[in-house]
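Example record

One chain of 128 residues, shown exactly as stored in the release files.
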Amino acid sequence: MATDRAYLMVQHRAGHALKVVDRALTSKDPVAYRRHARHLGPAILMNGLGQALATAAANKDSRQLYEDLREWLGDACPWTHYRGAQDLITAIAQGDRSTYMWATEESLAWLEWVKKLAVARIAEEDRD
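Predicted structure tokens for this chain:
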């Protein structure tokens, strides 16, 4: 049973990641999306989730990736702790430590799919 649940979790993440990467393909600058998808995970590990998300939200080039992660952690993720949260950064800052750790782990797991799919589907015009 645990294996089935883990598989479904991976499947949900991958499906949402595919949706947002395909949406990024039609954006004004898909290469920037690809670049930010590759760098947000390390930024979370180095700076913490809240600070990395605040930086991404403030940067117009990474704002769409932030919005996609906000969508995932907010309502698209079936096991989210932030359902209905209007402001993800505030919800993270006001939550408890275990929820923060969950959000960090879930963000990194989701970003792995986004990064892999973005690298595979978005042509690299310049060396990142």
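Notes: The CA atoms of residues 26 and 75 lie 23 Å apart.
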